Amino acid sequence: MTENIKSTPKKWYASWFDTPYYHILYKDRDYNEAQHFMDNLTGYLNLPENAKILDLACGKGRHSIYLNSLGYTVTGADLSENSIIEASKSSNDTLQFKVHDMREVCTEKYDAIFNLFTSFGYFDDDADNLKTLKAIHSSLNETGFACIDFMNVDYVIENLVPEEIKTVEDIDFHIKRYVKDNHIFKEISFTADGEDYHFTEKVQAIRLADFEKMMEEAGIYLLDIFGNYKLQKFFKNQSERLIMIFK
C-alpha cells in the first residue's frame, strides 16, 4: 500500500512523488510544449555536440529521454527511488539515471544542468535552497550553464484556482490551493483502490529578487531571465514562468 503522507515521517516531496497517483494526476502535462522548451533552451545555450547534461529532479525521465534523443549525454537525477527505477528502463550508453539529493554536489562536472518545471523550493529550511544553488554551481564545468525553470509566483497567486476536482483514470482528485506563510499549498484528497489518501504539496513563493539574493550569496552570475518556454521577456505580473540562466 502506498504510504499516506499523514502517517509517515518522510518529507512530502519524497513520499508523494513516490506514489503512482502523483504520475496519474499529472499525466496530461503538455509534453510538446516541454520539448519545444528543450529545443529553445539547448539552441539558446549553443551547447557543444555530445554535451553532458544533468536533468536535476528528472522524475520518470521524460525530458532526459528527449534531451538524449537530441544527441546529448544525459544523466537524470531524482530523490524518488521509484521514479528512477521507472526511468532507468530507458537507460543506454549516453543516458543514465541515479537517485540523488539536489543539495549534494555531483562527482561529475556538466556542460549544462537543468532544473525544470518548478522542481525547487520544496525544503522546510531556507538554507537548503542556497545549498542547492551552490551544489548546482559546483557541479558545472568551467564553461557550463545552468537553468532553473520556476513558476512566476506573482502570476500564480493572481490566477490561483482555490478549489477544483480533476478526474483522471476514474480517480476524483479533490484539489484545494492557498497561500500561507510565504508558501503556495496544494491539498490533494482522493480515494483509490479502496483507500483514502491526502497529500499536501508545498512550494516556497520564491520571487526573482529572492533568487537574485541567493545567487549573489552563492557566487552565481545570472545571465538571462525569460518569462515563458519560447524564451520571451519576463514580466513580473504577466509571465507564467520565471526561467533563469546562470553560470
TrEMBL record:
Record protein name field: Class I SAM-dependent methyltransferase
UniProt cross-references to PANTHER family, sorted A to Z: TRANS-ACONITATE 2-METHYLTRANSFERASE-RELATED
Superkingdom of the source species: Bacteria
Keyword Nucleus: no
Domain Methyltransferase: residue ranges: 53-144
GO biological process per UniProt: methylation
SUPFAM superfamilies cross-referenced by the UniProt entry: S-adenosyl-L-methionine-dependent methyltransferases
Keyword set, alphabetical order: Methyltransferase, Transferase
InterPro entries given in the database record: Methyltransf_25, SAM-dependent_MTases_sf
Any one GO molecular-function label of the UniProt entry: methyltransferase activity
